[in-house]
UniProtKB/TrEMBL annotation:
Keywords on record: Aminoacyl-tRNA synthetase, ATP-binding, Cytoplasm, Ligase, Nucleotide-binding, Protein biosynthesis
Amino acids binding ATP: K240
Provenance organism: Candidatus Taylorbacteria bacterium RIFCSPHIGHO2_01_FULL_51_15
Region (Disordered): 105-137
Record-linked NCBIfam families: gltX_bact (TIGR00464)
Listed GO biological process terms: glutamyl-tRNA aminoacylation
Positions occupied by motif 'KMSKS' region: 237-241
Enzyme class per UniProt: ligase
Stated name of the protein: Glutamate--tRNA ligase
Subcellular location: Cytoplasm
Pfam families given in the database record: Anticodon_2, tRNA-synt_1c
């Protein structure tokens, strides 16, 4: 099967999680079939399109490793550079009577919406992309609606039928030099030889308009597949108010690109098994459009974090260390640094968690002797005074050389005593003495991270406070 897909973002904002999932599906589908995928910037809305957004989109795609096939010696197309081409097509439509220059009073242009089909989620976006609103024009180019039924077989949603009579004579260009969105899409899809249009379901009601234009221009119709939207947990459309939505925000918060791609692939698609972890190459192998669901896909940040953790586990510890905020390691010995890295490697799901933990004071015990109520030293289930056990721990550790302050060795030294006296009785006060907290890494890890000198000092301090 010949497959050529496309990813045509409008550069009116940073690359959104929802758009990149669409890009990914197009990429997987094309690569799975040994086909091609092209990139183009749809910037017919010149006021809202910005070069900085194009750059953000390019940076995001290249960070993720999604590659596109060049076309006519270009890495991507930009619609604003193709006006001559659109003009030729437009002129053909006008010359053959399929479109006409329409004199408008400012009021008729604004009230005769070319877009009356009800579609809850896309109205405002289409209004924006049409770009016709709000501008006072004496003249526009309208498409002479043949008033017919258009139907197509959506590869995900099945048979879809629209009566286009309701559309009226839609505005397709502001002038011969200023085509609007639908016309440019149809021409570019044809010139790129696109075989499959995979896009968000908010574009469903655009499809009959585009098919009408294709038919008028005598262009081939690609296959269509409208993929479900990504929804926030409250089932509303995913937006800024739900937190991060741009790919670069996720990158900057320390998510791994492999995890983000893996997670996005599972939003609305499933491999037909319970398996959840797939590299990009594996996704290419198994991707199958027939397993894309119809219903909206809920964005679940916890699931994304879980997948990120799965990938983080495979990261080389040396690479991991490079992401640790310097202040967590400053002034520590090599053994301490290793112990701190190990603890972080265990506890962190996303690199950014380390900075978050630092900001919230979670790791304060690493740099400052803790303060706490001495009652906290007493393990809740026991009436026993912790003094005896803290003294025992201190003397066990006093005899251990600083170079042996590693988690495993510390455990060997203290655990037998703890097992004999009751683990809670011994390990609880040790944890509190070292961290000041009821929740923290285990006391062996704490002692290893703090080093011999600080560990002994904090144990003595706890003993003094009990006296
Ligand atoms: N420029 C449109 C968008 O960003 C693409 C629509 C399409 O895929 O045809 O949503």
């Amino acid at each position: 099967m010949k497959v050529i897909t496309r990813f045509p973002p409008s550069p009116t904002g940073n690359l959104h999680i929802g758009s990149v999932r669409t890009a990914l599906f197009n990429y997987l589908f094309a690569r799975h079939h040994g086909g091609k995928i092209h990139l183009r910037f749809e910037n017919t809305d010149e006021e809202r399109s910005k070069r900085e957004y194009e750059q953000n989109i390019l940076d995001s795609l290249s960070w993720l490793g999604l590659t596109f096939d060049p076309i006519c010696d270009k890495q991507y197309w930009r619609q604003s550079e193709r006006k001559e081409i659109y003009r030729t097509y437009l002129k053909k439509l006008v010359d053959t009577g399929k479109a006409y220059v329409s004199k408008e009073s400012a009021t008729t242009l604004e009230s005769s919406s070319p877009d009356p089909l009800p579609h809850r989620l896309s109205v405002s976006r289409r209004a924006r992309e049409r770009g016709a609103e709000g501008k006072r024009r004496d003249e526009v180019i309208r498409f002479k609606n043949p008033n017919k039924k258009i139907s197509f077989e959506d590869l995900i949603r099945g048979h879809i039928e629209f009566d286009t009579t309701e559309l009226g004579d839609m505005v397709i260009a502001k002038s011969l030099e200023e085509p609007l969105y639908h016309l440019a899409v149809v021409i570019d899809d044809s010139e790129m030889d696109i075989t499959h249009v995979l896009r968000g379901e908010d574009h469903i009601s655009n499809t009959p308009r585009q098919i009408l234009l294709q038919e008028a221009l005598g262009l081939a119709r690609p296959a269509y597949a409208h993929i479900p939207l990504i929804l926030a947990p409250d089932r509303s459309k995913l937006s800024k108010r739900h937190g991060a939505v741009s790919v670069t925000e996720y990158r900057d918060r320390g998510y791994l690109k492999e995890a983000l791609l893996n997670y996005l692939a599972l939003l609305g698609w499933n491999p037909g098994s319970d398996r959840e972890i797939f590299s990009l190459a594996e996704l290419v192998q198994v991707f199958d459009l027939s397993k894309v669901q119809k219903g909206g896909a809920i964005f679940n940040e916890e699931k994304l974090r879980w997948i990120n953790k799965e990938y983080l586990r495979r990261v080389d510890p040396k690479e991991f260390v490079r992401h640790i905020p310097e202040s967590l390691l400053a002034g520590k010995t090599d053994i301490q640094r290793e112990s701190i890295s190990e603890m972080l490697f265990d506890r962190v799901s996303v690199y950014g968690d380390m900075q978050t933990g630092l900001d919230s004071g979670e790791f304060e015990y690493l740099s400052r002797d803790p303060t706490y109520e001495k009652e906290l030293l007493r393990w809740k289930k026991s009436g026993e005074s912790p003094t005896l056990h803290l003294e025992a721990v201190r003397s066990l550790l006093e005899n251990l050389p600083a170079a042996s302050f590693r988690k495993s060795r510390l455990k060997e030294v203290i655990f037998p005593y703890a097992e004999e006296k009751g683990k809670g009785n011994v390990l609880w006060p040790m944890r509190v003495a070292l961290s000041g907290r009821a929740e923290s890494p285990d006391p062996f890890a704490l002692a290893a991270m703090l080093g011999k000198e600080v560990t002994l000092r904090r144990l003595s301090h706890a003993l003094n406070s009990l006296r």
